[in-house]
Amino acid sequence: MARKMWMRGTVAALSATALLALGACSSEQAPAAEGEETTSYDGGETEEAGDELISIGFSQVGAESGWRAANTKSIQDTLTADNGFDLSFSDAQQKQENQIQAIRSYIAQGVDVISFSPVVETGWGPVLEEAKAADIPVILTDRAVDTEDDTLYESFIGSDFVLEGEMAGEWAVEQYDGEGYQMVELQGTTGSAPAIDRKEGFADAISGSDIEVIDSQTGNFTRTEGKQVMEGFLQKYDEIDLVFAHNDDMGLGAIEAIEAAGMTPGEDIKIITIDAVKDGMQALADGKINYIVECNPLLGPDLAEVAQKVVAGEEVEKRIVVEDKTFDQEAAVEALPSREY
Ligand code: AHR
Fold first, then answer.
1. Is pLDDT larger for residue 27 or for residue 112?
2. In this model, does residue 35 exceed pLDDT 70?
3. Ligand 1 pocket: which of 73, 220, 221, 225 to mutate (most atoms within 8 A of CB)
4. Nearest CA to ligand 1 atom 3
């Protein structure tokens, strides 16, 4: 723990027992919120005497999607003791109150850096003020917070979700404008940055086309809820030509609902999704999804670099935009063999 190691240097006269006690503090975990899972993750490495590990508390949204699993793996594989970190990781199970409690625990623990991917955009002011008052830098990954005061965090690393929605909508217009398509939308978690921004980007891109959005509901970024919402749409509407799902998992749930209704996904009903995780890419290669806009989950290396700079007192960029690609069927077939996630 960088800050605690500095303390060790200044108290060289302390007894071995006292030093051991300080060492014990450095591996303390944030107490878990109710229903929240917390782990201290060292990537299997052991801290050697004299190492100055940066202690970092990371509050993850949950485990709702293949994208999230890949994002968690990237963070845990990168923020290891070998790479100079002492990571405390907590899973908020898609509940903002769990994230707030985890962040408060990291503040009480006195970690060097706090990082989190906010489940929703609003409601973070008070806890971010508390981190600032405790002089603990905060790095946002993946999702943004809605705040006027950008001094509450050091940097935000993640994709441009509005652009992702636009890229998806532009492809829909290129392919389907003029056909009078009726579209349904499977939105991500209500109030989350990707749900808000992807909806906005897609709507902008299709405005002026004859694609009509006949319904739009949340499937909470999960396969199960995506399937349930799609089943409801299929019962309610005689004609659905196109689905825009805010992530692959909801699109994969929609595929199950469409097949169960005796139709062929990708043909009878076209599907566009966002993420480009392996399962989604396989469905695209198989012709069940028609187009995917990538959302790159491999944010661990950028987070490690920014955290190291922040602790060293170096300047960091306030906004680090992660580049995303797009895939049609041919591109998916080509990319699948070497796809990392
Ligand atoms: O915030 C990124 C989004 O969250 C991903 O698109 C989705 O799969 C995840 O749950």
1. 112
2. no
3. 221
4. 194
Is residue 110 within 8 A of residue 3, CB to CB? The reply is yes
3-state class of 200 per DSSP? Answer: helix
- The second-level CATH assignment, the architecture, of 38-159+297-322 is 3-Layer(aba) Sandwich (3.40)
Query: pLDDT by residue (tens digit) across 51-60?
Result: 699 999 999 9
Pocket lined around ligand 1, Cβ cut-off 6 Å: 64-65, 67-68, 142-143, 194, 221, 247, 249, 274-275, 295
> For residue 266, how far is its CA from the centre of ligand 1 (angstroms)?
22
Range(s) for CATH 3.40.50.2300 in the chain? Answer: 38-159+297-322, 161-295
SS3 content of the chain, % helix, strand, coil (to 5): 45, 20, 40
Q: How far apart are CA 297 and CA 172, in angstroms?
A: 24
Yes or no: say if 145 and 287 are a contact pair by the CB < 8 Å rule: no
Determine the average pLDDT of the residues in 79-106: 98
Is residue 65 a contact partner of residue 221, using CB atoms and an 8 Å limit? Answer: yes
pLDDT at 36: 53
Q: Is the pLDDT confidence value at 268 over 50?
A: yes
Report how far ligand 1's centroid is from the alpha carbon of 173 (Å).
24
Ligand 1: atom nearest CA of 66 is: 8
Question: Mean pLDDT over residues 117-131, rounded?
Answer: 98
Name the fold adopted by 161-295: Rossmann fold (3.40.50)
Report the residue among 295, 298, 324, 341 best suited for mutation to probe ligand 1: largest number of ligand atoms under 8 A from its CB. Answer: 295
Pick from 71, 117, 142 the residue to mutate for probing ligand 1's pocket: most ligand atoms within 8 Å of its CB. Answer: 142
Average pLDDT over residues 135-157: 97
110: which 2 tokens? 């006195």
